[in-house]
Amino acid sequence: MFLLCHVFAGVALGVAVQPREGTGAAVAAAVAGAIFPDLIDKPLGYLLLGGSLHQGRIFFHTLILALLILLAALMAGRERWGNLPLLFAGGILLHQLLDQMWLQPVHWLYPLMGPFPAAVPLDFFRWSLQAELRSVSEWVFLIPVAAVTLALFHAMVPGTRGSLLRSAGQRAVPLMVPLLSALAVAGVLAALTLLPFPLMVGATPLRDGTIALVACAGAVILSWHRGVLAGG
């Protein structure tokens, strides 16, 4: 899965778990967890270890490390941090599920099945940028991500009038549910190979089905908690 799909999944998780006070912090923690594995593993695997591994799904894509982070989150003081450590850990687990890591058991269950296998060298960062720009689903996910960002984090943009940004985000909120619903339907059709193209570059029917599931779950969550984002 690509960047904006992971980001949107984190947004939906944060809104679902903490839809009232502290929604912004909850969304930020969940999104941080949802992209954290790629932020660490991609530079580590393709740049620092590129000569030996050239692999972007390594340590933070493993189940054991995700469970250790979850354990640390459970041990963190809830009186001080609330749900934020759990949302961060949940975002990491969500990332691994969206990446369908169970299909790569050598990676996911590392080190139980041996070392990470080396991959064929690839100009990953250039390929990834091109794939992001050419993936229909990423452009669709951009709209709810941008709307939620404006609605929740408008005051954090320096040199702007936060009320105008928030208003822009709130005006986009009603568009999110039908847009995500349409993406969910398209994902199902793509998974059944009834569309002439995949929703994501290089996607398989299983990945298109996962996109449909993310879009559907997001539509339900954002519809249920629409008032939080719209200022209601």
Structure description:
The chain has 232 residues and is mostly helical. The chain folds into two domains: 1-126, no CATH class; 135-232, no CATH class. It contains eleven helices and no strands. The protein has helices spanning 3-17, 23-48, 63-75, 78-81, 84-98, 105-108, 124-134, 136-153, 162-191, 205-224, 226-230. α1 runs antiparallel to α2 (23-48) and α8 (136-153) runs antiparallel to α9. The radius of gyration is 18 Å and the shape is globular. The mean pLDDT is 87.
Helix/strand/pairing class, anyone?
mainly alpha
User: What is the strand tally?
Assistant: 0
How is the main sheet built?
none
Query: Which segments are poorly predicted (pLDDT under 50) over 5 or more consecutive residues?
Result: none
In short:
The protein is mostly helical. 69% of the residues lie in helices and 0% in strands.
Topology, element by element:
Elements: H1 3-17, H2 23-48, H3 63-75, H4 78-81, H5 84-98, H6 105-108, H7 124-134, H8 136-153, H9 162-191, H10 205-224, H11 226-230
Task: Name the descriptors.
2 domains; 11 helices; 0% strand
